[in-house]
Amino acid sequence: MTQLESLPDDIRRAVAETRERVAALHAQLPRWGLVVWTAGNVSERVPGADLFVIKPSGVSYDDLRPEQMVVCTLDGAKIDDGTPAWLRPSSDTAAHAYVYRHMPEVGGVVHTHSAYATAYAARGQEIPCILTMVADEFGGPIPIGPLAIIGDDSIGQGIVETLTGHRSRAVLMAQHGPFTIGSDGRDAVKAAVMCEEVARTVSIAQQRGPVAPLPQEMIDKLWHRYQNVYGQHAEES
Q1: 220 catalytically annotated
Q2: Using one digit for the tens of pLDDT, what is the confidence trace for 140-155?
Q3: Nearest CA among 224, 230, 229, 204 for reference residue 130
Q4: Active-site entry in 9, 136, 153, 220
Q5: pTM score, two decimals?
Q6: Is 80 a catalytic residue?
Q7: For a Cys-Cys bond, which of 6, 32, 42, 93 suits 89, CB 3.0-4.6 Å?
Q8: 2: Cβ–Cβ under 8 A, 6 or more apart, which residues?
Q9: What gap in Å lies between CA 27 and CA 33, rounded to an integer?
Q10: Which of helix, strand or coil describes residue 177?
């Protein structure tokens, strides 16, 4: 078993910094109303190492501390990370690990059971791209992934199969709930927040009558603008 204390100093520092970020990011999930009780989790890849950090299973968000964050290999195995042997990683660890192994560009993964997005998952319906916000954030509809068993890497396979080649950073796993990916943990949390926001708004709109998707040409333009123009950008030297 890999031992944290035997790793190079720079990797141990990276692990400690990642644990701090992941612990802090978990506080964002209840803040934005994305989770109840102990459901949901955030993970983040450790820079420079084939490791990631994830929430321990079944621990209250109020009790989470950086030193409790579990460190795993990309196979989903917990390393000797200084936590008690009985402290197990999230039940979704195998799914997160599969994503990291097969999508090297992904640096963060989030899972929630946020109400409106999960309602679409329960019905097996994608979230249609009827708002500029959906086009901006997701580049088109938020897709439905397959029904998959919890506990092994089946969910991870469904995430990868659905999102590979897709603009969306969110997938609604059928009859389960949303998973989001990002360049790091914070980016994946943002995607989870925005997924729930557009799910709520689109759901309300659909209750009032038929809705029309945005034209593809407009979706493409909105996506490009938001991804490449919107916000602040460091000046090129």
Answers
A1: no
A2: 999 999 999 999 999 9
A3: 204
A4: 136
A5: 0.96
A6: no
A7: 93
A8: 73, 79, 80
A9: 10
A10: strand
